[in-house]
Fold:
Amino acid sequence: MTNKYAHKSLNLADVISAGFRIYRDHFKQYFTMARVALLWLIVPVYGWAKFAATVGAIARLAFFEVSERPEPGADAKRYTDKRKWSFLGQSILVLLILIGAFIGLSIAMGIAGFLVSMLLNPENWVSLLLRFLLGVVAFVMFYIGFMWILARLYICDVILAVENPMTATGAISKSWKITQESALKIIGIMIVARLATFPVRIGVS
Structure:
């Protein structure tokens, strides 16, 4: 079965270029939808579901734009709004997975740090330097590990937004499967995207 979410050779430059094109051509539409979605967060549960559905609508619009099959915003919002509870359930599941990953990685780093401290002499400056360097390496490994898991779940909202029928758990499983060979490239995309949108996020805040 062909993968319609990514080419076999995911080109980082092409993905970033497409992202900037969509960002440029539809900034006002997506920005307005995002602001409305944020307002929904004030309303407990139902508002959270509406927020998740609106984020899904943005993902659906962007996906069809990249696929050169543009869809009216009203149609996308109507489609995802019908599945708002699935989007909310998916968001909760992804959050729980990320919390579990954070705790698991923290425990692993803590055990590793404890073992290293038992082996090194704290009164020796060389040992202190080694501790510092190992701490930096551990932090980098922790960050990469967490980002790797995040990358594997990166397109689950897109899958839920464009495939029918599809469940929240099914979208998560499919995202994990599809991204198994592209996680590092997706991490690169996420880092570049955050850097590119940093000025806008500063302005909004």
In short: The chain is about 80% helix and 0% strand. Residues 199-205 have pLDDT under 50 and may be disordered. The chain has one domain: 12-200. The CA atoms of residues 8 and 193 lie 21 Å apart.
